[in-house]
Amino acid sequence: MMKTCSGVVDRIVDGRTAVVLLEEQQRQLDLPLARLPSGVQEGHRLLVDVSETDGSCGRIVIDNEATKASRAAAAEAREPLLQGKERSRFKRTRRRT
Question: Compositional bias (Basic residues) at which positions (predicted)?
Fold first, then answer.
């Protein structure tokens, strides 16, 4: 029996292998890039069918809605940092030489 899990493309290594992190299973998959949907990139959210018996992967599709939401949340979190509105809470000290 297959279970659909959500995952994210963490990175692509040497243009041939995609490292996919399955969040629910706290598992990493190293898959040939050719096994993933065309045009997949780092940060894309995926829906992966995983066998409950042997852990093998079946269907893999890009979850466009989750990808857009994830990228929007990252952009929102990054915005104040780029504008310099939030300062570090750490006190800066000068080194004595």
Answer: 88-97
Rounded to an integer, what distance in angstroms lies between the CA atom of residue 26 and that of residue 23? Answer: 5
What is the helix (H) or strand (E) element at residue 74, kind and residue range? Answer: helix 64-83
Domains of the chain: 2-82 (2.40.50.140)
Predicted structure pTM score: 0.74
The Cα-based distances of 74 to 41, 43, 68, 95 in angstroms read 16, 11, 10, 34
Token representation of residue 70: 């994830």
- Among 78, 95, 97, smallest CA distance to 86 is for 78
pLDDT tens sequence across 22-35? 988 899 999 999 99
Length reported for the chain = 97
